[in-house]
């Protein structure tokens, strides 16, 4: 157990707050004033500190630059009407970070150091939490291998950093997506369930090719047959077929989305029929053709709920019903937002409140 009572704090002398336009936020373009840092060496975490947001200097031989031993999380903070700071499911993000760490052969993080670090950081930068509808303070915890060594082996030293960024939603409105039948994001037994840098690097070329055709995202399919839906890289996938909410089951190739879990929990609580099972491309195309595909959307921390307007499959566009007809996903979106902002009962204990 680490003693977290003594987080050293060095405040910035040059706050960027007054130069930041909170009415025109994008995702991930502006960073708040401070960051939380700690180091792993001699098999333990230490050196907990908050410092001004700054560049990192490292040797060209630093392990992460060569072999990609790096993981991250993304979580959001909101401000309640009474001024309290509300973090959404931070302990679940911590658990997932440790699952990623285990798979990438990295040290796990002590829960109290993680929580205390982000609590102190947000308290210090609380003025950076936007009030604008749909906006929040996005926290980006990440860890990387910091050994100066280019032999292939797990690093013996690591850095853990958390910085924050006031953001709007990841996507502006609905998205057009394309079903991928050539490239693969992740295979079973691999690292697809982790938030590791390499998963995202592998998606960039297919995503670029999709963007050239006018689609903002990819619907990944399984690595063996390209027959079953996986996830969407920045989001998990959900479909409403008839009266049932259907989503692919978790596996070693799919990220266990915390928004995914929140949506499924809410839907089940409301008595909606929910099925976590393999969903084939054929099933969705058939449902589209016979009019039972009512909705398709992605869920994610950055994306929240993003409705899919068009699905392209082998060159043909399936144009889905208009956003206003999508009762369930609209209702889920609102309910989740109300919980995050402290406007609805936190029935499932998702909110971590900082006074
Ligand atoms: C998130 O939803 O927090 C993500 O990590 C997705 C993306 C911005 C990489």
From TrEMBL:
Pfam families the UniProt entry points to: Aminotran_4 (PF01063)
One GO MF term attached to the UniProt entry: branched-chain-amino-acid transaminase activity
One Gene Ontology biological process: L-valine biosynthetic process
PANTHER family assigned: BRANCHED-CHAIN-AMINO-ACID AMINOTRANSFERASE, SUBGROUP IIII AMINOTRANSFERASE
Keywords, in A-Z order: Amino-acid biosynthesis, Aminotransferase, Branched-chain amino acid biosynthesis, Pyridoxal phosphate, Transferase
Gene3D superfamilies tied to this protein: 3.30.470.10, D-amino Acid Aminotransferase, subunit A, domain 2
Enzyme Commission number(s): 2.6.1.42
Name of the protein: branched-chain-amino-acid transaminase
Broad enzyme group: transferase
Pathway the protein contributes to: Amino-acid biosynthesis; L-leucine biosynthesis; L-leucine from 3-methyl-2-oxobutanoate: step 4/4; Amino-acid biosynthesis; L-isoleucine biosynthesis; L-isoleucine from 2-oxobutanoate: step 4/4; Amino-acid biosynthesis; L-valine biosynthesis; L-valine from pyruvate: step 4/4
InterPro entries: Aminotrans_IV, Aminotransferase-like, B_amino_transII, BCAT-like_C, BCAT-like_N, BCAT_family
Keyword flag Amino-acid biosynthesis: yes
Catalytic activity field: L-valine + 2-oxoglutarate = 3-methyl-2-oxobutanoate + L-glutamate; L-isoleucine + 2-oxoglutarate = (S)-3-methyl-2-oxopentanoate + L-glutamate; L-leucine + 2-oxoglutarate = 4-methyl-2-oxopentanoate + L-glutamate
Organism (species): Sporocytophaga myxococcoides
